[in-house]
Specification:
Blueprint (H helix, E strand, L loop, with lengths): L1 E8 L5 H14 L5 E8 L5 E3 L12 H7 L1 E8 L2 E6 L6 E5 L1 E5 L9 H9 L8 H8 L1 H10 L7 E5 H6 L1 H9 L5 E5 L9 E3 L2 H12 L4 E6 L4 E11 L2 E4 L3 E4 L7 H6 L8 H4 L14 E3 L6 H18 L3 E10 L4 E8 L17 H20 L15 H9 L4
Parallel strand pairs: 1-2, 1-7
Antiparallel strand pairs: 2-3, 3-4, 4-5, 5-6, 8-11, 9-10, 9-11, 12-13, 12-14, 12-16, 14-15, 16-17
Amino acid sequence: MIKVGVIFGGESVEHEVSIISAIQAMNHLDKQKYEAVPIYIAKNREMYTGAFLKDIETYSEIDNLKRYAKNIILYVKDNRIVLQNKKGFKGIVNEIDIVLPIVHGTNCEDGTIQGYLELLGIPYVGSNVYAAAVGQDKVFMKQIFEASKLPVPKYVWFFDEEYKKDEDKIIKDIEKIKYPVIVKPARLGSSVGISRANSREELVNAIEDAIKYDNKILVEEAIQNLTEVNASVLGDYSYYQVSELEEVMGTDEFLSYADKYIGNNKGKLNNKSSKMSSSSGSKGMLSAQRIIPARIDNKLREEIIEMTKKAAEALNMSGVVRIDYLIDHKKKKAYINEVNTIPGSLSFYLWEPIGKSYTELLDDMITLAIKDYKKKSKRVYSFETNILKNFNGSKGAKGKFGKLR
């Protein structure tokens, strides 16, 4: 049986969303093939494990969680991937074979976790460091899509310090796009910190709000006659498969955090969203109102499917990714909005309509990761020779290699 370490949580504004997504996944892993080992990263960046971390109710009292869960570190020892007690008796608590990161947002999904796992030589599911980093930065993403001749909305981007130094210039640059515009922190997800501005006053307020979350800000045109459509893609650079398309119905002017995860009860997670049954898990992204399949014509559907494959290839995505589109339904023109390298709920609900269950989806993702790890293991990353072997101070350097520069 393969032991899958499911990493989730982290220091991110999407911390709770990550918990929901991870618990859904752990409940749907094929128990004949896999054993889920939860690895929860608290907001203080400490790692915890324990079987009861698979229950959503555990997270209502974080202090109790920390008291009873095992505080651990993850590392490689004698070619074994081990979870070791960090406090008290420092014995090995558990071992895993592969990691399934289900983290969202800054300090997690942006390549941070992937880089840590790469450094330790631990196999993991999903996109690599480069794809994860680009997929988290909406500006990098748009620049690559433009270079790949994929349609994106008109946009302006800037850093917070640029804005403080010359607010008038940046606002004038933005107003060339014309109102209304959408203001976004460049490196957050789940619609956190996003605002729509219909005037200069609203624009200034929206920028000030976005700067609370990120020092890099993106402002883009608001697509008129808007229909939001999402597609999920599974695979790697050798082959990509696209899911059914969904049409997402937001109650706000754009699909907000509340639309995605809270539903109609904006004050707090309702019982359907915050509770979970052992069979189905929390609703997560299912709290959003959606129509599957999306109500678009076949020509536009095929265009989006091809754009999805091309976008995934341009960013070298792996595993399961969700790509969100903005459609001007009068012009019947689609624009790529953004990519989610680890989407909420892993977008399993987009695969079920075409006959792929969540359990099968997870199995495909893990199989892809194992295949990729085996390929990587055959590549050359370092040399056996040591050019410093005969190095003997500055004299040795000059004599053996010439002057160091």
